[in-house]
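Protocol step 4 of 6: structure prediction from sequence.
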Amino acid sequence: FKMKATMHRVLDIGKTRYSSPFFVEPKYSAVIPSNMLLPSEEQTEPPVVYGPWLMETIKRKYVEW
């Protein structure tokens, strides 16, 4: 599935900056459309259930763990 990143800009003001990341995740049972920018009737791929997708992704990427 595809998501567009939020546009962000940083100005160098000559002082030390600190940032605090804020992460948000859908709940395990959330159904995510294949393309969040299209209406449901125009989807070309089936939606993904977040929890099982996450588990499979972790297993694929970190199989040695």
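Step 5 (inspection) to follow. The chain has a mean pLDDT of 86.
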